[in-house]
């Protein structure tokens, strides 16, 4: 296992996630507005939004070398622990199984535990990173 000397910490990862949510949510809301004539925040809390958002989180890093928009803006990226190229399976286990499904099954407790792992582990890896064999590092 390769030890990363520049792992991304809690605050930069949190802000990158915030940017992703904002940069995906606003355009999606505008599209809904132009189609329906109204902006409904309830439309963002259904399965369609979840599916689209997690498809974005799963596929974009495969196409963009470990980046999603928020991570690119913050200068951090997802890498495999063995430094090989990310695979669909890595990203599926990271985003869908390790983040979405696990947080659903644990009623959000896994997200809180992940925050503490990123805050206090030397390698700054969250539960979904451990499950998928990934890490988030500052890009150089």
UniProtKB/TrEMBL annotation:
Residues 7-133 form the RDD domain. It is found in: Cell membrane. Keywords: Cell membrane, Membrane, Transmembrane, Transmembrane helix. It holds the Pfam family RDD. The chain crosses the membrane at residues 12-36, 51-70, 91-120. It is a multi-pass membrane protein. One of its GO terms (cellular component) is plasma membrane. Signal peptide: none annotated. This is RDD domain-containing protein. It comes from Jeotgalibacillus campisalis.
